[in-house]
Each structure stands twice: as structure tokens, then as C-alpha cells.
Amino acid sequence: MPLLTLSLFGGFDCRSAEGRPLALSTHKARALLAYLAVHAGQRHPRDKLAGFLWGDHSDVQARANLRKAISRLRQALPGPARGLVDLDAGGLMVPVGALPVDVARFETLALEGTPESLEGAARLHRGPFLEGIGECGESFDEWLMAERQRLDETLRQVLGRLLDHYLATGAVDRAIQIALRVLALDPLEEAVHRTLMRLYLQQDRLGAALEQYQRCRELLARELGVEPSPDTEALRGQILRMAPAGAPPRETDELPERPGMIEAGAEARARRRAQGTGRPSIVVLPFAAAEDGAGRPLGEGLAGDVATELGRFPELDIIAPATALAYRGVSVSPERVGAELGTAYVLDGSLRPSGDRLRVSARLLETATGRQLWAERYDCALTGLFDVQDEMVRHIVSTLVGRIERARLDVARRRPPGDREAYELWLQGWSALKRADLTAIRRARELFQQAAARDPSFARAYSGLALTLWTEWACFSWNPWVLMQHEAVDLARKAVELEDRDHRAHCILGVAQLYARDYEAARHHLLKAVELNPNDADVLAHVSFGMALVGEHALAVETGRSALRLQPHHPDWYAGMIGIALFGARLHEEAIQTMAPAPEAFCSAPAFLAAAYAHLGRAAESTPYRATVYRHYRHRLARQEFAEGTSCLTWLLGIDPFRLAADVDHYAEGLRKAGFE
Description:
30 helices; single chain
């Protein structure tokens, strides 16, 4: 444990290992220690430091002031820590590693660029560098301003990458928090204003979205003398069309988790990493493409397909491809990847297209040691890529779980697509579908339609189309599910007919049948999806929710926990669906913890939080969630989604259709205790 730690973001704060603050009586003594610590490992001549901090004094007086500052600094340091400032005839220095400084850690994390590192860097930057340090001379102040600008620019980059990460993974609430921080740094970032408007729209926070537009408009007019761009005006028009008649009311509800939800998500990931299953766990990272980006979609698609095929083996735990994508382009060691994702193995590689041929290299690494367990290089025609994929799966499964009969490997295979262009269209559609954006969802639908037109026997195109309907309804559409249900069911059935081993098709078919109240058919297809691929985290999350509605709570909890473990960086809807499963199993405290990083994952999520608190005898804590639910209720009532006179309680009980009377009563009782009528 270090003898002292030094925090410079948001002001000077130096503390002992026991947490006692270091009492430095003058601001220049604090400035001296800060400067030496930031430049750890560099020895600074005394004359330089004297002129740096007391440049407006004579040389004699400046050196005398430096001697006093050094004396005060050494007196203030605890006895064992006095060696932290190395003083000799050549000058002063803080040795590298002797005094941990938040600024150095911030820059290291920013450079690493993994999701965990970016969150850590954002958390460390608590305010301006050396805020409130006081006037320390012209030279020091010039250095201070340059450092602040440099660190603020690094923070902008960190927040921008973190915002992209949350948008890509569908972490809507956390993306909102980061977008607000970006705008606090640079209020004139119009594109970020638009992003925030879209995120509010996804949560049906129409008043907040329009307020954000107005804020953007006023800032642009006052600071730049310009109007919002056509894209911003078009988004405002879209929001107004979705709003109830008249102006949306000002939103006054606020959920208590929001300020700390990023930290809550990180803590939840750490807890789940510690809950190993004893099975070999592996993450398949995106296959690196050429520097010009050629082959990147194919490299990501190959990694996703390998992960999917490996996921069919229950002897393995496979981290979800969506989480693996967060490590695209990040140069960190296998040990670091394993530490962040809780995996024992990493598969990575590269893919280089050349005309109609490909060169694919792959290697399997042990994360604890970095040791290479297997490596291979393949040269093949584009049409032979699926044979390469199958060969990789055989090698990896054989390496990690011993010899598995060839027949079993063959049974696990899905039929490869017959048309390469159809497959590439599907890859583009699947990539678009990962973005929490209505335009992207509709673009995905167009691409899946083109894939189906190219190859009418391509099952994945039809399951993708069904999933776009479900995603649009769940995230953006305020029409009743019945208006989309029949088309989604027909598309999923067609996918199953074409490829009975398409686990995603079985999953979406099962979910659609839940809302048709055909519980037995829903149960059959959801369980079939898990049987076909027990490692697909998206499927497991849906199955967790579905089994909760069916009434099989032990299975709902088991699959939900597995989904969260296999998809550490999951979209908000995971928290909502699995939180409902935990609530249905009467695990109210765990339900609250699970939903904390995404309390408004969908409109009924705050209702389950309110009911969970009420069942725990903490009804007072349910008040903010009740206010949020009633805001959704008023919006939907104004849109005439249900009959006039329908109570909020009746509406909620109809949204998530529990099969068993005991589960309906448990939910209704919690809602009534929380004050719903």
C-alpha cells in the first residue's frame, strides 16, 4: 500500500494510507508537490523551480522561498514518506511510482481504451486540474492552463469513446449521463445535443427531448448566431409528431439511480466475474482487418459466427459477440481482457481479403499467462470461409474440452448460406440492428429484405426481419404489439421452417407467442432456443423473461444470471427483462440491484422497481418510480393506446402477461403497496 496518494482533479488532496489529509500550510508548497508528482522521474534544478514559482521575486528571494517551501513540505510529510521527495545537489524529484497520482492513472486508463478503462478514467476526472490552487506566478499559471487544456481534451476523447460504447451496446441511461458530461465540457456540440434528444425519445421522455432542442437552439443563436441544422430540426419534428396532442408536459420525475448508475454497472460486472461456473470460458475478439478497413465487416461477422457455433457446446462459456466488439481496435494484453471479462481464454486473429480470396489467421491464448495454445493460418476462397470457421470450432472445442466426436460437431453446425452476397447483406443488417436507433433498425430491415431476396432460403434473413419488428415495437413503437405480432410470427416461423437449428428464430417466435398468450408454444420455442445454443446471451435474456411469465421461476433466474455473466456490457433491456424474472422469483433485492444501471429500460421497469421496494417494506423508496410510470401512463393514454378509463394498475398488469394467478397477485400486491391505483 502506498504511503501517500495524491489527487489533483477538482483540487489538491494528498492523503496518507490511513486517509488523513496532508497539512500543507501554503498554496505554493502544494503547487511544488503537484508539479514534482506530475513530472515523476524528472529531476528539476532548484533555480528552475525557484523561477517557476517565484518569477516576480529576485533570484535570492526566490531561492529562499523555495527552501522554505521544501522545508514545509518535508515537515508535513509523515516520517516514512519523507523520502518521497528526493533532494540532492542536482535538484528535486519524486521517483516514478513513489506517489500515486490520479492524473497519471487517468492518462494510463485513457490510453488503454477498454470499456472498463474508459469508465475508470471518466470517474477519476472529478473537476478541473488543480482547481482552486491559487495564484502561483506567471510561469506556473501558464503551465497550469496548458495542462488543464491538455487534460480536458483527453477527457473529451474519453467521454466520446465511452458515449460511442454505450450507444453501441444499448446502455441508454448511461449514454445519457455521458452525453450530459460532454455538453458540460462543450455546450456547442450540436451532434451530441441530437444524440441526447434521441436517447430521451427512446425513453419516451418527450418533454426532456424538446427542452434539449430548445437549449441547443438558444446556445447556437447566442454563441454562434446560427440556427440548428436541418438534421436537428428534422429530429424535433419527429418528436413533435410522436407527442400527445398539445405540448408534452414538463417532466419532473427523476430516478435516484441515475447519478451513480455507471458505478453500479461496474460493480455488478465485478460481482459476476467472481461467479465462475467451472467451465472453460472464452471470448472471440473481432478478427482484425486491413488498415484501410477492407474486410472489417467480414472479420466481425466471422468472429460472431465462430462464437455462435462454439456457443452450441454446453461444456463452454462463450462471452457474447456484442461485448467482444467493445475490444475492437484496442491493444491490450490477453491478461487484461481476461481480467475485465472473467474469461480464461481469448481467440483473436486477422483477416485479409485479396480479390476473391482470403487469408485468415487465428490463435487461442490463455489469459492467465498469455500462452498460445493453438494457432493456424488459412488461405481460402471467399466461398470457403465457412469451412475455415468449422475447422476453427473443431480445434478450439477439442483443445478446451477434450476430444468430441466428429458426429456431434457436425450435428451442431448450421447450414451455411448459399449466397455470399446475401450473407454480407445480413452482416450489415446485424451490425445496424445493434444500434439503439430507429433509423438503424429500419435500415437493418431493408438489408435483411435484400438478403432474403438474394437467397430466399437464407433463414437468418427472416429471423433478422422478425427481430427488427420486435425491437422497433419494444424500443420505439407506441402501437399495440398486436399490430406487428402476426408479421413477426410469420417471419420467425419461416426461418424455423428453413433452418430448424436457428436458435434466434425459435427465440423470437417464442417471445411473440408469449404476447399472444400461447404459453405452451412459447415455452417450447424458448426452451428449444436454449437447447440449440445455451451461450447466446440475447436468447438467454429473452428466455429468462419468458420463463418468468410462464411461471418457471428457477429456470428464469438461472438463464437470466447466465445472460448477465456472458454479456458484461449488455443493453439496458437485459436489466429490465432479467429484473422482472428476479422479481417474479421473489428475489426483490437482487431485482433492484440488477435494474439499478437501467431503471427506465422500458416503461414498466420502474413499476417493478416500485413493487420490489414495496414488498421489502420500503414503500417510501418507490415514490420516484411511481412518478415515472405515471408519466408513461399519461403519454400512452393521450395517444389512445388503451381505452379511456383504464387505470394505471390495469394497464401495467396487461403489459407483462404473467400466466399464473399467484404471479399476477404478487405483482398487483406490490403495485398497490407502492401506491398505484
